[in-house]
Design a protein that fits this description.
By secondary structure, the protein is of the alpha+beta class. It has two helices and three strands; from the N terminus they run αβββα. The protein has one domain.
Length: 115
């Protein structure tokens, strides 16, 4: 059974959905999660971090098979990793928008059928 509601809102949703689908490409190096700067103490009592803020450290946090993973990111890779995380986020947002449009189209179709 084909779910094809009519009307201007349905046409607008389909147009947006097909625009997203036509431009959707899986970025080959995209990364999940978020990149964050944290501060850690090294544990040496003579180090400046013992009484201060701690050593700056970048990390990538993401879920893998239902478990949270945190990977340390070297300073020289932060800009590269940030770009890959943004690519992953953009892809996920586009997919979520397409699925939301599909759900909205289903709701419109059901309302038309109930009339």
């Amino acid at each position: 059974m084909k779910i094809e509601p009519k009307g201007p809102r349905a046409a607008q949703l389909r147009q947006r959905k097909f625009h997203l689908l036509s431009s959707l490409r899986i970025p080959p190096d995209a990364l999940p999660g978020s990149l964050a700067l944290t501060h850690r103490r090294c544990g040496k009592s003579s180090c400046h971090c013992a009484s201060g803020k701690g050593h700056p450290q970048w990390s990538l946090t993401f879920m893998d098979k239902g478990k949270k993973r945190v990977e340390r990111i070297p300073n020289d890779l932060v800009d590269t990793i940030r770009k890959k995380v943004e690519e992953g986020r953009g892809f996920k947002e586009a997919v979520a928008e397409i699925m939301t449009a599909n759900a909205d189209l289903l709701v419109l179709w059901r309302k038309e059928k109930d009339l």
